[in-house]
Every structure is written in structure tokens, then in C-alpha cells.
From TrEMBL:
Keywords: Membrane, Transmembrane, Transmembrane helix. It comes from Tilletia horrida. It comes from the Eukaryota. The chain crosses the membrane at residues 44-70, 90-112, 148-167. This is Uncharacterized protein.
Length: 190
């Protein structure tokens, strides 16, 4: 497979099976999207946004805790610390994974091989939501079972690997595979 470059004509990819059925306009958009200079391995691309988002998640979780105490009173405040934290994180999980799933469904048009920039951006935001959610859960919850910690760490590894490989290999099938794998993370919540 030839390396994708935004300066190459779309016709250069006509004989590659993955690109054979794509229109020249779709190929050109795909080449422009995959030729970005900002990569997931760039230190300021993902990490700064994730840190800021973790602070936002912490503030949001404080709001959830306050709302639960207001709505349920003694039933909530009477729970022990671990139970309150776990219930807060479950509500946060449902909010974030529902949002991530909606973003993934909005980018489903990529499966027709008609790629658009917004699909890449939506999936990056969904990946950031899931990754931040898992990191925050591991920090916020006082106790977690080892299988859940392993699940979170493996999911984080797969997200980082998929994003890095997508921009290094420049193969759009990785975008589609990553979207399918992320559905496992987004649709596991109650």
C-alpha cells in the first residue's frame, strides 16, 4: 500500500483494494485527514486535554454526589464511603458512555467508506471520553477488583494503540476496527 500524502493525486490509490470503490473526492478527504501533523503521540495533543477533562470530571462527580444527597437524603448519606463513590462513578459512567456511544453512532457513515473529517473528530472525542472515564474511575474509586483494573488498562492500551497505528499506517480500516472495539467499552454499562 502506498503511503498517503496530501500532495499525491487520488488516482494513485485506485488499484489498492481498500480504496478501489471510493470516489476521488472521498480519497482526497481521506488523504487530507490522515496527513495531519498532530499525532496522538504528540505530548500536547491528548495528555493536556485529558488532564483538564479529569478536573472537569472531578467537579461533575462532586455535583453528582451533591445531587444524590439532595434527592435521596439519608438513603444516600447513610451509605458507606465506598458505596457512595461507586454509585457516583456508575452515574458518571452512564453519562459518559452514552455520550461516547452517540458520537460513535454519528460516525457510522465511515462504514460505507465515504470518509469525512467530522467522523475522525467524533471518534477521537469518543476515545477521549472513554479513556478519561476509565482513568478517572481508577483514581476516584477507593477499591476496584483486579479484573476490572486489568479491563480498564487493556482498554486504555487498545485506544492508544489504535489511534497511534491509525496515524502511522494511515489505513482507514483501523478507524473502522477501532470504532467496533470501542463499542465494547461504550455499550457495557447498564
Amino acid at each position: 500500500m502506498p503511503a498517503i500524502s496530501s500532495s499525491m493525486p487520488a488516482s494513485a490509490f485506485a488499484e489498492v483494494p481498500m480504496y478501489a470503490d471510493m470516489t476521488p473526492a472521498t480519497l482526497q478527504r481521506l488523504m487530507n485527514m490522515l496527513s495531519e501533523n498532530v499525532l496522538p503521540t504528540t505530548p500536547y495533543f491528548f495528555h493536556t486535554a485529558t488532564f483538564a477533562f479529569l478536573v472537569i470530571l472531578w467537579a461533575f462527580t462532586l455535583g453528582i454526589s451533591g445531587a444524590m444527597a439532595f434527592l435521596f437524603g439519608k438513603r444516600y448519606t447513610g451509605m458507606n464511603f465506598d458505596q457512595r463513590r461507586t454509585s457516583d462513578i456508575y452515574i458518571l459512567n452512564c453519562v459518559l458512555t452514552t455520550t461516547a456511544a452517540a458520537l460513535q453512532f454519528a460516525s457510522m457513515g465511515a462504514f460505507s467508506l465515504d470518509f469525512h473529517t467530522f467522523q475522525f473528530k467524533l471518534l477521537r472525542v469518543a476515545a477521549t471520553l472513554i479513556a478519561s472515564n476509565y482513568v478517572f474511575e481508577m483514581i476516584y474509586r477507593p477499591r476496584m477488583r483486579y479484573p476490572m483494573i486489568a479491563h480498564h488498562l487493556l482498554t486504555l492500551f487498545l485506544i492508544m494503540l489504535s489511534l497511534s497505528v491509525l496515524y502511522e499506517v494511515k489505513d482507514p480500516s483501523i478507524l473502522l476496527s477501532g470504532n467496533c472495539l470501542m463499542f465494547l467499552a461504550t455499550l457495557e454499562q447498564p
